[in-house]
Amino acid sequence: MKIFTATQIREADAYTIQHEPISSLQLMERAATACAQWLFRHFDARKPFYIFCGMGNNGGDGLAITRLLLNNGYKATACIVHHSNKASADHTANRQLLEQQYPQSIYDVAAVADLPTLPPKSIIIDAIFGTGLRSAIEGWMAGLIHQLNDLQTRHTLVAIDLPSGMLADASSAHMPVVHASITLSFEVYKLAFLLPENAARTGQVHILPIGLHPDYLTQTPTRFHVTDAHMMRTIYQPRQPFAHKGTYGHALLVAGSYGKMGAAVLSAKACLHAGVGLLTCHVPQCGYQIIQISAPSAMCVTDIQETYSSHFHESAPQTRGLQQYKTIGIGPGLGTATGTAKALEQLLEQYRQPMVLDADALNIISEYPFLLPRIPHGSLLTPHPKEFERIFGSSDNDFARLELLSRQAVSLQLYILLKGRFTAMACPDGAVYFNSTGNPGMATGGSGDVLTGILTSLLAQGYAPKAAILLGTYLHGLAGDIAAARMSQEAMTAESIIDCLGPAFLQL
């Protein structure tokens, strides 16, 4: 699914109005109907509704929703917020329709003191400002936003299109913004919904189709996308009947150190369960028996150096043997000892195909930044936010960090995955994809090591780097969702994600 800017969304509305054809008022009615039907499914008619309507088209949506609620036997009051002396044409038309049918349903708000007293457990609908807002709300309207947020602790607050005060395409982290329990938006995600700074403001986001013209949606280019099952099914490559283990590649996993061999085991098991043909694990000598017992399907070689003890990596795999590997995954549980950093430097000099770098491999690069441009083009980096900051620097807000992520991916010609609720994957061509699967239960030790194994496996099987990072991240999150459904978010572990990779593949 594409993510459009506020400008593109307005263009999509205009294109639909012109080419369907349909009037703007009829398109507004379609949006209001989609919202009202959602409300009918989730709230019964005993709940009182208070719809706060601004003077623009977002307020017009709210007025139409009020009328539809009343038509279906709900108790609803339109609280018209007079933040401007001028109303949009569609707002005016919907107010007139509401006044004709339900003249007692309109309540005017021109100051914070005008707020009505709400019965317990009311449903508050925020339809004050939509995507047209371009700056911070000020004056008495800021006070109104704060008052609505206070009410949200005792009532359910539903935002229409966008929580009022939030900017669709820029940071509003330090602005007055409605804190919605639920956001009902239209047709496509807005970038603001996918960034951590807005998580407490959007609540649960539901994207409602309203029939925007498909030609605009398919033909309009955009940098930002949300992955979905349809996209993954176009990427996924089913197994061929005459294939053999060599068909699906030989991967090398460089991982583990004393006390952190669990990370190597998790990554190895995930790599195997994601379908790699052959896997060799390169571990320090202390990890030999652990890998052989825990992942018997994998081969194991150990670090040849003995000068620093058998607990850490001190050498890269031998150069002559590197070419047998379709790709290399490096980092889980690796440690950051000086000898390990030197081994990583040797590996980057010797192996020039796309690889996967995670965890301590990234921590080493943050300490030795001259290694960053030596990473082979097309490689996959998988930092969490702190690892990303240590390598690339801090940002003022999530939007700025997203732009930094994209710039670095283009500049270094790497695929950089920034972990989070909607994991962002920046590509060398400037495109950014947000992953749609996953849940908070995956915030557990070893989850990232599992992802490294999956990505390494898909690269080894011949998936292009972009396909590998999109499909691998989606499968990782989908397996986590299946695990959470089976055993709860609280009880699941990284091993649970591995165990559910099979059912995740079956869904594709």
From TrEMBL:
* Record domain YjeF N-terminal: where: 9-218
Cofactor(s) needed for function: K(+); Mg(2+)
Molecular function per GO? ADP-dependent NAD(P)H-hydrate dehydratase activity; ATP binding; metal ion binding; NAD(P)HX epimerase activity
- The positions annotated for binding (6S)-NADPHX are 57-61, 130-136, 161, 263, 333, 384, 449
> Which SUPFAM superfamilies does this UniProt record tie to the protein?
Ribokinase-like, YjeF N-terminal domain-like
The record's cofactor note says:
Binds 1 potassium ion per subunit.
- Report domain YjeF C-terminal positions: 228-508
Residues that hold K(+) according to the record:
N58, D126, S164
EC number(s): the record gives 4.2.1.136, 5.1.99.6
Assembly notes: Homotetramer.
Instruction: Explain the purpose of this protein.
Output: Catalyzes the dehydration of the S-form of NAD(P)HX at the expense of ADP, which is converted to AMP. Together with NAD(P)HX epimerase, which catalyzes the epimerization of the S- and R-forms, the enzyme allows the repair of both epimers of NAD(P)HX, a damaged form of NAD(P)H that is a result of enzymatic or heat-dependent hydration. Bifunctional enzyme that catalyzes the epimerization of the S- and R-forms of NAD(P)HX and the dehydration of the S-form of NAD(P)HX at the expense of ADP, which is converted to AMP. This allows the repair of both epimers of NAD(P)HX, a damaged form of NAD(P)H that is a result of enzymatic or heat-dependent hydration.
Q: Which family does it belong to?
A: In the C-terminal section; belongs to the NnrD/CARKD family.
Report what the protein is called.
Bifunctional NAD(P)H-hydrate repair enzyme
Tell me the organism: Chitinophaga rupis
Q: Name the lineage.
A: Bacteria, Pseudomonadati, Bacteroidota, Chitinophagia, Chitinophagales
